[in-house]
Design a protein that fits this description.
The protein is an alpha/beta fold and 273 residues long. It is 34% helix and 23% strand. It binds adenosine-5'-diphosphate and magnesium ion.
Length: 273
């Protein structure tokens, strides 16, 4: 693995570490049929950071995110969040899935209110918080619509609004835009970026889309094939707004592709024509 570059300047710009993955690994099953999904992994995510994890399908991204979320436990090493070992899920640390997970019988606003209801927030306050979030997501006109009456992009906006409603410190996002078309995806990325920049939450986003990771991330961790391991962590020191076709952007794309050995001209001679 390439040395992880985490200079002191980065550290002070981003605050303290909020997530510490300390040699955590996960193997599913036992004996001959066991699958090592995640090799012993060490990384830190800083408070307020937008941290992206990219890697091929099946390389252990969700496994790692589930360990951070507390849905699963490592069989080696440990995961600390806010200085404490993770022992289970916690509303301060929410996992946003790709498939929305909205309740089909509830309206958009009813779905956004769900977590607030569970937290025992009074009806009036619930409504006004949910309404404000839907407005921020550009969905005011759709608050009474059921999920099936919304487009995929809108459903994911409702899903994100629902997660933000309970004001978590950390948002863990597992390929949240995987199910929407490319243009909708870009719109959602811009929305998420705006929310992050306004709210200062820590975000860990898993994606297999390198461009998405560079567009959104402060740092991008590149994962190897299974068993997943962090191959490198790339700092994205690009100013906002990030033009996806700028020379710096393209350069970072090349850097990441190179970690995946996907830059044609750098391939071994037997691949050349
Ligand atoms: N609960 C499980 N039981 C057995 N194998 C699993 C389980 N969860 C994941 N795996 C395996 O671990 C590997 C990594 O899975 P996953 O973390 O979901 O990958 P990714 O999210 O990067 O696509 C895959 O080979 C997958 O089949
Ligand atoms: Mg996954």
């Amino acid at each position: 693995m390439e040395r992880v570059r985490e200079g002191s300047a980065r550290r002070s710009a981003l605050g303290n570490e909020i997530i510490v993955v300390d040699g955590a690994g996960r193997t599913f099953g036992r004996g001959n049929t066991s699958v090592e999904a995640l090799a012993a992994t060490t990384l830190e995510v800083y408070e307020g950071e937008f941290f992206c994890l990219v890697g091929p399908s099946g390389c252990g991204k969700s496994t790692l995110l589930n360990l951070i979320a507390g849905f699963d436990r490592p069989d080696r090493g440990r995961v600390l969040v806010q200085g404490r070992p993770v022992t289970g899920p916690d509303p301060r640390r929410l996992l946003v899935f790709q498939d929305y997970g909205l309740l089909p019988w509830r309206s958009a606003i009813g779905n956004v209110e769900l977590g607030l209801e569970i937290a025992g927030i009074p009806r009036e306050e619930r409504r006004s918080r949910a309404r404000a979030l839907l407005e921020r997501m550009g969905l005011s006109a759709f608050e009474d619509k059921k999920p099936h009456e919304l487009s995929g992009g809108m459903r994911q906006r409702v899903n994100i609004a629902r997660s933000l409603a309970v004001d978590p410190d950390i948002l863990l996002m597992d390929e949240p835009f995987g199910a929407v078309d490319a243009l909708t995806r870009m719109g959602l990325q811009a929305d998420l970026l705006e929310l992050h920049r306004a709210g200062g939450k820590t975000v860990v986003l898993v994606t297999h889309d390198i461009e998405e990771a560079i567009y959104l991330g402060d740092r991008v961790a590149v994962m190897s094939e299974r068993p997943g391991a962090i191959r490198a962590i790339v700092n994205v020191d690009l100013a906002w707004p990030r033009g996806r076709t700028s020379a710096e952007f393209t350069h970072l794309r090349e850097v990441i592709l190179e970690h995946f050995r996907l830059v044609p001209e750098r391939r071994a001679p037997e691949y050349s024509i």
